[in-house]
Amino acid sequence: MARSKGTSDKREKEKQRQKNNAKRRRKWKERRANQAKGKTLDEMLAYVDENGNITSTPPDPEKRKVVNAEDIDIGVPKREAEDP
Questions:
Q1: Is residue 9 within 8 Å of residue 16, measured between CB atoms?
Q2: Per-position DSSP letters for 12-55, written without gaps between them
Q3: What's the pTM value of the predicted model, to 2 decimals?
Q4: Among 17, 37, 53, 55, fewest CB within 10 Å belongs to which?
Q5: Which tens digit of pLDDT belongs to each residue from 5-58?
Q6: Beta 47-48 vs 54-55: how paired, if at all?
Q7: What is the pLDDT of residue 20?
Q8: What SS3 class is residue 7?
Q9: DSSP character for 70?
Q10: How big is the CA angle at 57 (ends 56 and 61), to the nearest 5 degrees?
Q11: Cβ atoms within 10 A of the Cβ of 49, count?
């Protein structure tokens, strides 16, 4: 009696599956090795300049404006009476 072909198909499929898994593992390890480890704190910091734009350089202390906290109004201004 002849052997069934199913067993050889199973072996071929298993070999192909293992080959694909090894290929995936190899690619994963290559990506992990080439991946950037992260940035330093100085590279991650962002500053806001006097115009409100985000920059990577710290602001110049000479251009700094002093603002009194009492001058800042928080809330909705009161409505004035309208003239008819």
A1: no
A2: HHHHHHHHHHHHHHHHHHHHHHHS-----HHHH--EE-TTS-EE
A3: 0.38
A4: 37
A5: 668 889 999 999 999 999 999 999 998 888 767 778 888 899 988 888 999 888
A6: antiparallel
A7: 97
A8: helix
A9: G
A10: 145
A11: 13
Contact 48, 42 (CB under 8 A): no
Measured in whole angstroms, how far is the alpha carbon of residue 52 from the centre of its chain?
23
DSSP secondary-structure letter at 5? Answer: T
Pairwise CA distance, residues 29 & 17, whole Å: 18
| Structure tokens that stand for 14 in this block | 């298993």
Q: In which residue are the tokens 């090894």 written?
A: 22
What is the spatial distance between Cα 19 and Cα 37, in angstroms, rounded to a whole number? 29
Calpha distance 53→47 (Å, rounded): 8
